[in-house]
Design goal:
Layout lengths: L1 E7 L2 E10 L4 H14 L4 E12 L1 H16 L4 E4 L3 H9 L7 E3 L2 H6 L2
Helix pairs in contact: 1-2
Length: 111
Amino acid sequence: MSLKVKESGSNMVVYLHGRMDVHLASEIENELNDIIQKNDQKSIVLNLDDVEYMSSSGLRVFVSLMRTLKESGRNLKLCNLSLAVRKVFEVVELMDMFDIYESEEEALAGE
């Protein structure tokens, strides 16, 4: 799993790539928390276009990230979910818990 970051207005867009499984979840969580701390006024958009697999450990990271951001009045938005990743969210009934957008453009416009 790798990630890239770009700034876009009041958001930091994070591009995740690869597999988000139990072995990598804590590493990704640490990297995302670093991004949140270094950009303490920015909301986060996670672009999941290149995430090929996500386990429940990945969901836990997203829930934790969302709570951390909400505590400081910021948002977490998810976009470009593959069918496999979307299915994980649907199975555990978390679709309504997150702000999910079809594209990065829609996520950024939904400020």
